[in-house]
Amino acid sequence: MNVYLSSPMHENHEREKRFHRMNDVIMDIAKIYMRWHDEKQDFGVEDTLRREEIHTIQAIGDNEGINITELAGVFSVTKPTISARIRKLASAGLVEKRSGFGNNKEVLLFLTEKGWAAHTNHEEKHHKLFEVFEQHFGDDAEYFLDSFMHDLNRFSLFLSDVKQRREEF
């Protein structure tokens, strides 16, 4: 019997190799996911939209009358960043800006008919994606969601710990 193969040191080395392989897989998944989400997509309106644009449309549709400050908070971006995004969406005829009631400085945001079409088509794409997920995972879909979210949350806590202890590495 080879003592090295069954030693705790060997088991730790193998576990460490699996840990680093897991990190590689997570990075590969993140790259694929971000590449997929960075592509402009067609939501049934004349213009193709980036992820942040369609999600801005989604947020306005879900919170009609939201103001620039509140919308910036939803996305954790600055007011100038969200204002530039709104200008682009307004010029494309997707979003309408209106003055606040009794406050001409406040800008309230609403979707146009075209914006509502994009909003609806975005929700339909999400629904179709979920249907494919359920077909792929079948009866295990609920278990997969629960266990994956649990493990992702644990891994997120690990990453927070690593970030705080970064100088040790």
TrEMBL record:
Q: Does the keyword NADP apply?
A: no
Task: Please give the Pfam families that the UniProt record associates with this protein.
Answer: MarR (PF01047)
Highest taxon in the source lineage: Bacteria
HTH marR-type domain: residues covered: 22-164
Record GO terms (molecular function)? DNA binding; DNA-binding transcription factor activity
| SUPFAM superfamilies membership | Winged helix' DNA-binding domain
Q: What transmembrane ranges does the database entry give?
A: none
Q: Which UniProt keywords apply?
A: DNA-binding, Transcription, Transcription regulation
* PANTHER family per the UniProt record, alphabetical: TRANSCRIPTIONAL REGULATOR, MARR (PTHR42756), TRANSCRIPTIONAL REPRESSOR OF EMRAB OPERON (PTHR42756:SF1)
Q: What is this protein called?
A: HTH marR-type domain-containing protein
